[in-house]
Specification:
Elements: H1 2-34, E1 38-44, E2 47-54, E3 56-58, E4 63-64, E5 71-72, H2 77-90, H3 100-103, H4 117-121, H5 135-143, H6 149-156, H7 174-187, H8 191-200, E6 209-210, E7 225-227, E8 230-235, H9 246-249, E9 251-253, H10 255-266, H11 273-279, E10 294-300, E11 303-314, E12 317-324, E13 329-335, H12 340-354
Antiparallel strand pairs: 1-2, 1-13, 3-4, 5-9, 6-9, 7-8, 10-11, 11-12, 12-13
Helix pairs in contact: 1-12, 2-7
Length: 357
């Protein structure tokens, strides 16, 4: 029996090694041609097959990326918020089809008694997204001042409806900021505390947290944007008050911690299998939006798979998280020099290389 197991183990190593070599060649190409800086993690069944860091986390002090680096993950935060909502749903403390006002009666927007929790989770509340409606308002909302949460909601997230809730996908931060407020109302404690108690501490995600603009976080990365014509010509983007992104984008993490979160979700450790199925059920009418992910069928050459993805981007940082649901393959790409559009193409090249397509 030992001989058989040993032989199988050797076959698996030889099978995986050429795959990873092909993946590494893709990464090398991204580094040399396009100035990719950051990290790539690939894991099969939760076991890391590749974890690589390249480039500089901080260019002012010439600090390279390493296992100690903590990355801004921006909208990957939304999946943490979605899991907290699904935990409340599982406990019978929230109805996905109840309206916002059921749990947040003080909310004054027109969506209060018309948009549901499910609508918020699928970016289909129908609200006018004032906070991102123009460059000037984006700066007012996220760059120019620190907002009290209630004032932010009153000023930017309480406008009239522009479409019937549940009928139109319109990606935004506000729906998930409102979900964060609802989580606070139900737990009667700050979102940050709930996040720690319900996810970060139980999973021992010790390098993941919720950011405030004046926090001193050891080893956190700095974001850079490239000139349109030269990927090696970088500059530091405009200042942002990360606090204002709140439950829609204020977190940091590492590839290893994100893999822990990935496996806890998809192996039904944070939620029951039934709740996970609800979470991963996409609405085709809303651009394949599920509750915290986009989920859809995808083909890579001869490989068919179910693709669950979540992206994040802001102020020079980008994050791309993919889980092939039927294959339990996890891919996490975090960068401080490339756009989310670039990472979307990069991940496809990595998957094609991994499967030899």
């Amino acid at each position: 029996m030992k001989i058989k197991i040993s032989g199988l183990f050797m076959i698996m190593i030889h099978f995986a090694y050429p795959q990873i070599q092909k993946v590494e060649r893709v990464i090398d190409s991204c580094i040399k041609k396009d100035n990719f800086n950051g990290t790539v993690l690939i894991a099969q069944n939760g076991k890391t097959e590749l974890l690589t860091y390249t480039g500089l986390s901080n260019r002012h002090y010439n600090i390279p990326f390493s296992d100690e680096t903590r990355f801004h993950i921006f909208s990957l935060t939304k999946t943490f918020t979605a899991v907290l909502i699904m935990q409340l749903y599982e406990k019978g403390k929230i109805d996905l089809d109840a309206t916002i006002s059921t749990y947040y009666p003080e909310y004054k927007g027109e969506a209060a008694k018309k948009a549901t929790i499910r609508n918020l989770l699928t970016y289909s509340s129908g609200r006018d997204n004032k906070d991102i409606s123009s460059p000037e308002l984006i700066h007012q909302a996220y760059d120019n001042t620190i907002w009290n949460l209630d004032d932010f909601i009153t000023t930017f997230l309480s406008e009239k409806l522009v479409s019937t809730p549940g009928t139109k996908f319109s990606y935004n931060n506000g729906d998930f900021i409102l979900l964060g407020k609802i989580i606070e109302k139900i737990y009667n404690k700050p979102f940050e505390d709930v996040l720690k108690e319900q996810i970060l501490i139980p999973l021992k995600m010790e390098n993941t947290g919720f950011l405030h603009h004046n926090d001193i976080i050891q080893n956190i990365d700095e974001g850079y944007s490239a000139d349109a014509t030269d990927p090696f010509a970088l500059h530091t983007p405009t200042n942002t008050y990360i606090d204002n992104f709140y439950s829609a984008g204020a977190m940091y993490s590492t590839p290893k911690d994100l893999l822990i979160f990935d496996q806890a979700i998809f192996n039904a450790h944070l939620l029951t299998k039934k709740t996970l199925e609800t979470m991963l059920t996409a609405d085709k009418k809303l651009e394949d939006t599920a509750l915290g992910f986009w989920v859809y069928s995808k083909k890579f050459g001869s490989i068919n798979t179910i693709f669950a993805e979540r992206q994040g981007e802001g102020y020079g940082h980008s994050a791309n998280w993919v889980h092939l649901v039927d294959k339990n393959l996890s891919i996490i790409i975090l960068s401080n020099t490339k756009s989310i559009q670039y990472l979307n193409k990069m991940r496809e090249r990595l998957i094609m290389a991994y499967y030899g397509q």
